[in-house]
Amino acid sequence: MGFVKADRVRRWRESFNPSAPELPDSAFVVARVALFAMAGIGVFSAFQFMAVVADAEWSDDELASAVSQAAKELNGTSRFGDIYGDDSGFDEEFATMIEDEVVENGGGGAPQSGANAGAAASNQPSGADYTVTAAGADASFCVHVVRTRSKEGDYEPPGIAGNPSTVTVPNYDFAVTSRTGAC
């Protein structure tokens, strides 16, 4: 619209409303400035949107680096287990830990979400496999976790009134490795 000549607009306007007052040239200048400013803002916004979309997806290299670093950071860690010996939440808890570590180690260009660690159906509390994928990345990675009971790290809370404790909180050590490909 900013390139349309003023005489053409005046003729068009007169054909619809012959009794309308004549528009001064300054109105066309202001309209052109406003139209070109809006077009510039639109182009700038489009490029910003494309940059945001590119930052919202993982690349294969970002995911590979993040999974490798997450496995290094989780390897050798230890955690307390359930005092009742119920290991039913192990898969979900460790999958969440892997997802959080992958996102944390994604780097500056990687998104802060979108990583998924899917537990294998054959997982056991002593050894588990997780297939790590991410939104936008074609690659997948297998994270293998071995959980070993560490009796030296067990915690025995103090008993009541000087009596020995009847509860022992088990401690587990984790050995974590990763490789390319699904589990």
Core attributes:
183 residues; alpha+beta; 5-stranded antiparallel beta sheet; 4 helices; elongated
How does this model look, in words?
This protein has 183 residues and is an alpha+beta fold. The chain has two domains: 6-55; 60-180, no CATH class. It has helices at 6-16, 25-55, 60-74, 90-104, and strands at 78-80, 115-119, 127-134, 141-149, 171-180. It has a five-stranded antiparallel beta sheet. A hairpin with a 6-residue loop joins strand 3 (127-134) and strand 4. Helix 3 (60-74) crosses helix 4 (90-104). The model has no long low-confidence stretch (mean pLDDT 85).
Q: Helicity level, as a percent range?
A: 25-40%
- Spatial extent as radius of gyration: 31 Å
Quote the average pLDDT. Answer: 85
* Spans of at least 5 consecutive residues with low confidence: none
Structural class: alpha+beta
Count of extended strands: 5
Series of secondary-structure elements, N-terminal to C-terminal: HHHEHEEEE
- Beta-strand proportion: 15-25%
Number of domains: 2
Main sheet strand line-up: 1-5-4-3-2
Q: How many angstroms separate the termini?
A: 58 Å
Number of helices: 4
Outline the biggest β-sheet.
5 strands, antiparallel
Shape: elongated
